[in-house]
Amino acid sequence: MKLIMSFKEIKELRQAGKLDEALQMAHQALEAEPDNIWNKRAAAWVYYDHLKKNAQPDSFEAFKENLIKIKELQLPEDEKMVFDNCAWQIGSLVFALQKTEHVEYVKINELFEIIKDFHFTKPSEAYSFIYKAFHKGYQNWSNYLTFADWWNFDNLRSEDYLKEEFNGKKMMSIAEQAYIAYSKKLLEGEPLDAFGQQRVVDKEKIQSFLPKLDSLIDKHPDYQYPPYFKAKILLASGSDENVLSAFIPFAKQKRNDFWVWELMAEIFSEDKEIQFACYCKALSLKTPEDFLVKLRQTFSEMLIEKRMYNEAKTEIKSYSNKRETRMEVAEPNSAMDRTRVV
Length: 342
Known about the structure:
This protein is mostly helical.
């Protein structure tokens, strides 16, 4: 009875905003009976209140300290209410960290390491919020694939496969975003040197991911980009089989985008005539010149090989005064040119 009363008293102190007193009482109860579940629950909710209070970048250390204390309580798996409430605070802080001028990914890594053993409800809205938060800065986060494997796309909710709306505009579902992000990071490969000039694709991880990507494509034919990335992944892994069949549905949808034909040329790397035709088609489309610099450069080299010197000269003039601009919106990020397979 006394233990139940302690839990009730600590809860009343928390609700009254007397967190210091609640924390002191929780510590006393834990010292008396450290394995008692009611004492652990009481302490966990006090630590949670401190999380909520410090869920902003300026209070990162205090937030981390209380998150570690929750972890050290070693609450059983069925105490999901505490963990799910923590998920919202963790996600809020991660979102906030990624809005800072200079994102400190070391802090994001620290939070990820702490929560690996947390017993979130899966799937759940709170768990999806965790994914969205860490996904936000995946482009520059070297630990993204490890995080995504831990989070596990099997835990996506049915709602996560629906398109979202932001400021009146339709956006692709978080599920489609997740699979695209994972594909992009696979294509980037792992750095072999300190500067990332040489990178290696994890062929084993690709083989593990492809069936999941296939399943997504089969179940959601309305998703435009997964077939594109399947083709890119097959090419990167050296698997020429089925590349074309994987890419054709996407190419039909996006046939008026120059980079579709650029990838088609990559698929037919052994057939110079088809490559040439693909580049001709790509350059015939209406595209801002800034996006065509690299393509024109490659095409001019092909023209020189064909001894079409006047045409090559025209292409060289077209791109010589243009600065190469990387597409971020209209074109999905390409794999790095120096990526190779092990």
